[in-house]
């Protein structure tokens, strides 16, 4: 093979350059062939920090302090990054893991969107996960409740998965899924949580907030607190729907209790009409009351979200509700971003970001 | 500047190649000039998983389960990785954050050793941080105790830093430092912790275990449990020193209570003599009893570690105790790997790994 046919100096330089290029890692976002070895991620910078929070003091001159109620953030900035970072905020009983490797071992939103050249910030909200240091004590129960979450998160009706549920049937996936839950290490406090996330946007500047479930409602509050929240992508928001004073819908009854909207001053609500918002819901949410609490719970939440997006748009805003089955995308659970079709779900989000000029 | 002097096809190709090379990211480990923009990290793979743990069940046919007591692991594998991964295990009151960005915002061991081409696995031990789901409940106190840790972790004698302490005097660094603490979300259980870390080594195969403080003693147990632990690097081990039956030293009295060695069967102890071990301690550890509990606490631990490494070596092992001030490296706290001179401290560890053929 060493034929000596290319022994001129110029050819030698060309070959050297070609070899160097061959070992040069291709851009991370070029890897869309799922059968191929994914390209390397090129990370310009990564790290973690605490943000927000408060300090309490014990009495007396020799008093001790406790620094708590901050959020923990792990972030990665890819090479050739897009301008606006994505801030990903977990839901109830979860932490930053929500966005990492899926229960069945595939890449989650953290890495998918790094490959798409977004800086990605994963939040552990105050009193959860790596932000567990709380200024208020609590008691943690070890009462078993996995099956409750299987139903509530709409994997199916325990022990059966919904037909076509976008969740691996490998038992190890369910093992991993149950183990990504974490308890609150202090009383849940919406102000503490939203103050910390607002402090994050103070620190990093403009970005897109991606919420899930419990952080959906918290996300609206954070967006009203901080104009650096330039858009919200909300997966299955489950509570905290805010309406202008005088326009709060009647509570909706469900097997998991009444779902109420909350009144905020019109001037506050107006802030949510100035940013693009998209809300996604998955499959197996009935239109009519269900005897299965997990399904009935989400029936009223989807219904309330419809009223909510209508209210945003009625006041001149730009909110879109996407019920995935209406696009023919079936089987999604309460965690569409980590379901088996999460690349397809991510593509929808990429499309939203592109249409709104956020990428 | 566009002089047209290089308009031959060959020159054009050369220029294109040169431009391509200029945008090609250099290998991550090439960035040792601390004044330069660090090179991009090239990550072949990253993700997270739960490992080990158990399942408990509530009584009755409709019983619920709880999956808990696993470790949480976040890992990154660089391009062109070395063979043996580094498994980094935090100490008391801490979680994987220990190894991430330092309190003053510089790169910690996670990223430093990724740049040196090691796969890096960060552990949250069971009942801590992202592995908070415990099979046993607990109560979490919010009693302020920051100043206790300032002294115990040998930053100084509150409110004064030790002269020359390798810790930033920027108040934000101390703010970050206090906020990286997390409570236990279940009772501390050495068996639960070491079983989970042993399960990690079952999953990933041979590797080097890097421990800190409380995980020092746990690390010896994990290494006895699992032959995939091929070496141990232990920063300031603080408890759980194991000795062969009949060779346990007398307890050592200190202001924080007696420090006892623990007996293990000779055959178990022998397992620790078959792997290279290095133990590092920082500065401001007195030889004589001190009236300051933080200093007195580490006085007996350093003394016990000396007896321990002697016992390992007496039985044919390969344990080295490095007291950093004896090398002229001054000012290190209980967290040498995140102190201001952590690159120098990392260089020592790299040297150990190289000498033992572990890199």
Keywords:
359 residues, homodimer, alpha/beta, Rossmann fold, two-stranded antiparallel ribbon, 8-stranded mixed sheet, 15 strands, 21% strand
Helix content bin of chain A = 25-40%
Global structural class of chain A? alpha/beta
CATH topology of chain A: Rossmann fold
What characterizes the major β-sheet of chain A?
8 strands, mixed
SSE pattern of chain A? HEEEEEHEEHEEHHEHEEEHEHEH
Count of DSSP H/I helices of chain A: 9
CATH architectural designation of chain A: 3-Layer(aba) Sandwich
Largest interface: A-B, 74 and 74 residues
Strand numbers in spatial order across the main sheet of chain A: 1-4-6-5-10-11-14-15
Mean pLDDT of chain A: 92
Radius of gyration of chain A: 23 Å
Which word captures the global form of chain A?
A: globular
What is the count of β-strands of chain A? Answer: 15
Oligomer: homodimer
- Percent strand of chain A equals 15-25%
Straight-line distance between termini of chain A: 47 Å
Describe this structure in words.
With 359 residues, chain A is of the alpha/beta class. Chain A has a single domain, classed as Rossmann fold (3-Layer(aba) Sandwich). Helices cover 30% and strands 21% of the residues of chain A. Chain A has nine helices and 15 strands. Chain A has helices spanning 9-22, 109-115, 146-152, 171-179, 190-204, 214-225, 266-271, 293-314, 342-355; strands spanning 41-51, 54-57, 65-68, 71-78, 86-89, 120-124, 138-140, 156-157, 160-161, 207-212, 229-235, 242-244, 262-264, 276-281, 318-323. In chain A, the strands form four sheets. Chain A has an eight-stranded mixed β-sheet, with helices on both faces. In chain A, strand 10 (207-212), helix 6 and strand 11 form a beta-alpha-beta unit. In chain A, helix 3 packs across helix 8 and helix 5 (190-204) packs across helix 6. The model of chain A is unreliable at 1-34 (pLDDT under 50). At the A-B interface, helix 1, strand 1, strand 3, strand 7 and helix 3 of A face helix 1, strand 1, strand 3, strand 7 and helix 3 of B.
């Amino acid at each position: 093979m060493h034929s000596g046919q290319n022994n001129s100096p110029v050819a030698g330089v060309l070959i050297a350059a070609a070899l160097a290029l061959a070992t040069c890692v291709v851009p991370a976002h070029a890897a869309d062939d799922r059968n191929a070895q994914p390209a390397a991620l090129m990370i310009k910078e990564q790290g973690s920090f605490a943000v927000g929070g408060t300090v309490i003091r014990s009495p007396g001159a020799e008093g001790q302090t406790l620094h708590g109620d901050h959020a923990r953030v792990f972030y990665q900035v890819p090479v050739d990054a897009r301008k606006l970072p994505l801030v990903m905020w977990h839901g109830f009983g979860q932490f930053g893991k929500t966005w990492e490797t899926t229960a069945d071992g595939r890449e989650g939103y953290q890495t998918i969107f790094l490959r798409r050249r977004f800086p990605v910030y994963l939040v552990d909200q105050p009193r959860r996960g790596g932000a567990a240091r709380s200024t208020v004590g609590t008691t943690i129960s070890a009462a078993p409740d996995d099956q409750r979450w299987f139903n509530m998160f709409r994997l199916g009706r325990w022990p059966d998965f919904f037909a076509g549920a976008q969740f691996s049937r490998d038992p190890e996936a369910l093992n991993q899924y149950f183990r990504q839950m974490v308890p609150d290490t202090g009383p849940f406090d919406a102000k503490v949580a939203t103050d910390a996330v607002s402090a994050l946007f103070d620190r990093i500047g403009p970005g897109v907030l991606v919420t899930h479930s419990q952080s959906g409602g918290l996300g609206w509050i954070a967006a009203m607190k901080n104009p650096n929240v330039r858009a919200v992508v909300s997966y299955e928001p489950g509570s905290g729907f805010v309406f202008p004073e005088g326009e709060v819908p009647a509570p909706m009854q469900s097997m998991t209790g009444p779902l109420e909207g909350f009144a905020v001053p019109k001037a506050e609500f107006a802030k949510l009409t100035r940013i693009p918002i998209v809300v996604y819901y998955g499959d197996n949410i009935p239109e009519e009351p269900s005897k299965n609490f997990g399904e009935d719970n989400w029936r009223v939440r989807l219904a309330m979200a419809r009223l909510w997006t209508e209210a945003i748009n009625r006041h001149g805003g730009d909110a879109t509700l996407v019920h995935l089955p209406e696009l023919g995308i079936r089987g999604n659970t309460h965690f569409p971003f980590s379901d088996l079709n999460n690349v397809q779900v991510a593509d929808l989000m990429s499309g939203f970001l592109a249409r709104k000029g956020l990428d």
